[in-house]
Amino acid sequence: MTWQPVVGLEIHVQLKTRTKMFCRCANGFGGGENTQTCPVCLALPGALPVPNRIALEWTLKLGLALGCEIPKRAVFARKNYFYPDSPKGYQISQYDLPSCVNGRMLVPSSAGDHEVGIVRAHLEEDAAKTVHVGGRTGRIGGAEHSLVDFNRVGTPLVEIVTGPDIHSSEDARRFLQLLRQTIVELGISDAEMEKGTLRVDANVSVRPAGSAELRTRCELKNMNSFRFVAQGIDAEVARQIAVYEAGGEVVQETYDFDASSGALTARRSKEEADDYRYFPEPDLVPVEPPAELVERLRGELPELPSVRIRRLERELDLDRALVLVTGGLDRLYEATVAAGAEPLPVANLIANRLATSAGDAVDASQLALLVGARDRIPRAVLDDALSHIDEPGFEAAPYLAQEAVSDTGELEPVIARIIDANPGQVAAYRGGKEGLLGFFVGQVLKETGGKANARVVSELVRERLGA
Amino acid sequence: MAITREEVLHVAKLARLELSGDEVERLTLELGAILEAVGKVAELDLDDVPPTSHPLELVNAWREDEPYDSLGLDAVFANAPQREDDLFRVPPTT
Ligand SMILES: [Zn+2]
After folding, report:
1. What is the ipTM of this complex?
2. Confidence class for position B67, pLDDT limits 50, 70, 90
3. Same domain? A77 vs A189
C-alpha cells in the first residue's frame, strides 16, 4: 500500500515589540537574568495586565498577510497550568475567539500553487526560561531543582495553526520558508529558529493514498531548524507506516526529535494533559478592531513572497525564484535586471555570491555593470569587487578597467610553459581524462596572477592539447 | 451535590495542592455550595442573552509600546524563598 503523509504545523512567533505583551518591561534579549521583570510579569498580587497596542496590530497584520478573516471580537482567556515557567499559574492566550481565522497561504511548487489553510492565528504570551539542575541531564524527572529566569515571560507570541494540508516534508519546509520570509518582511519578528524567536511543532499522521480520512496523529516538538523539521517529519512518517504495516495502531503521543541521532523520543505522557480549564480573562476587556484600523493595516502589506515567486518564475525557474525570494534578494535581482543586466546571470550571481544580509545595501546599477563585464574581467577581480559591493559608495568602474588578458600572443608562451612542465598530466588528458583541462587553466591563471581571461585560456589549452 | 469528591481531588492535583481528608471534605461542601449558588442563573430563560464574559461594555483598552524601568533585583527577589545567583530556585516539577 502507498501511504500519504498528513501534516499540520503549529508555529510560534515572538514579536519584536519594544515592550512585553501585558507590562512595559523591555522585550528581547540582552538584559541580565531577571532584570526585565516587574510586578505584572512576576505575577505579584494585585498587578494587572494591560495589552500592548502594537502587538495587537502586528497580529492583525500577520493575519491579513495570511489571508485571514478578522473577527469582530477577540477575547483573551486564561489557560491554567502549574509549572514554574508561568508565575501566574496560567498563560493569557486567545482561545475560542482569536484575532485571525480562516486564512490560506499559497505555496508555489513545480506542480502549481499548493494551498495551505491557516486555521487561526492568535495572540498569547511566552513562558519563562527554566533550567533543570541535577539528576540526569535535561530530564525533568531526575532534576533536583530548577532555576528560573523570568525575562522571557510575557513576550508577545503569535501562534499560527495550519490545517492538515501539507503532504511531504519538502512542502513543510517550503511553507515554513515562505511564512518566515513573510514575517520578516512585515518587520514584526526576526523569526530565527536558532534563537527561538520562531518555533515549530508538527502534527503528523499518515493515511492510505487516495483516502480522505484523518488518522491518529502524533506531535513532534523540539526541532530547531527547518531542516530538522523536515527530517523529523520523515522519521515520524516512516515510524507510523511501519506500525500500520505490522498490523499495529498508532497511539497519540508527543515526541522530541533528536537531530544528531535521528531518534524520536516519546515524552512521558502526562495523566492530566490538556486539562487547562480555560475561562475568559476577567482582567482584560475584549478587543474589537475598528474597521479603519483593519483597512489601514491591509493597505500597509507589502507584495507577498508567494506572489513575487510566481512573477519571477516567468523569467527564471522555480528553484532560483524560491532562493531569491526566501533569501530576501529578489528586489535586488529585479532592480539589477531593470538596470539592463541579463536575468539568468544576475540570478546566479546574486544567489551564489551575495549574502542575504548584503541585499539591501547593494546598488543595482553597479551590480548590473559587473554582471555585464563578468566574462571580460579576471575572476580574482570579480571576487574582489563582490566582496566590497555592499559598502557605501561602491563603484564598479575601477574593477571594470582591469580587463582580463585575452591577447593570445601574451597567453600562448605561458600555456606552452605549463604544458612542457607537466608531461604526466598531458598524457593523462590525451588518454581521456578531460577533467584535467581545469588543472591547466588553473595553472595558467596562477602564472598570470589571476589576470588571464579563463574562457580564452580554456579554448587555447584545449586546442593545443587536442593536437 | 454540584461537585464530587473526585473532581475536587482532580482539580487539587492540577494545582499541585496537597489536601488532607478533612480539607477534601470541607472543600467539596464549600465548592458545591458556590456552584449551586451560581447554578441559579441556569434556572432563568437565557436563550436570547449572549454569553457575557465581561460585565463592562468597555472594549479596546490598550496601551502604547513604551518601556518603563523594570524592578531592581533586590525587589525582584524580595519574596523568593530561594535564590541562586540572579535566578529563582524552585523545587523540581513533575
Ligand atoms: Zn514586566
Report:
1. 0.91
2. very high
3. yes
